[in-house]
Amino acid sequence: MGLLLQYLLHPFQTVRTHVAQLRLWHSLAALGVFSMSMASGVGIMRPGLLVLLVVIWGAINIVNAVIIDFFAQCFGSKGNSVALFKGLTLSLALWILFKPVQLLKMYIPDDIFWLMYLGFLSFVFSVQIETLKQVYNIKTAKAWALWIVPGLLIAVTVVASFMGLFYLV
């Protein structure tokens, strides 16, 4: 539990020094925290919804880690998808830090809220990039390239699917 608290307080330092010590239960706890944050955001806090969110986000993170690990291996890095899954999933726990801002949303202007939201997303993405750098021992540019790959694959798949549908019609 101490590692989770340390991660929430000092994510970059924890990723740099303790990425090898992450356990699966850390990831499951992060998925639980993230799911509770998401469910409370929509105002529905039911156990079934929480389990569904944990399963969906867990599956998304598994696919994300496998895709990134595949391309990391193509670029010459040693495969380490389990550690990557643990690190990327742990970054979801950081959403608990944004919850106070979400609770104040009705009291602050929308422009300020969305600016804070973008800043927080940038922070989470930076932690994920640092995780990639530490897991694969790579430079920042290569970590960004690996981080972008799953999104590009999804975008290309969606565009190709729509083009196929329009071609059939």
The total domain count is 1
Rg of Cα set: 17 Å
Percent strand: under 5%
Q: Strand-and-helix sequence, N→C?
A: HHHHHHHH
| Residues in helices, as a percent range | over 70%
Uncertain spans: none
- Count the DSSP helices: 8
Shape: globular
- Using DSSP, what is the number of strands? 0
Biggest pleated-sheet summary: none
Structural class call reads: mainly alpha
Distance between the termini: 55 Å
Average pLDDT rating: 89
How would you characterize the overall build of this protein?
The protein has one domain (2-168). The chain has 8 helices and no strands. The protein has helices at residues 2-9, 11-18, 24-42, 47-74, 81-90, 99-103, 110-136, 140-168. Helix 4 (47-74) packs across helix 5. It is globular.
Highlighted features:
169 residues, mainly alpha, globular
Nutshell version of this structure?
This protein has 169 residues and is an all-alpha fold. Helices cover 79% and strands 0% of the residues. The longest helix is centred in the last third of the chain and has 29 residues, at 140-168.
List the helices and strands and how they pair.
Layout: H1 2-9, H2 11-18, H3 24-42, H4 47-74, H5 81-90, H6 99-103, H7 110-136, H8 140-168
Helix pairs in contact: 1-2, 2-7, 3-4, 3-5, 4-5, 4-8, 5-7, 7-8
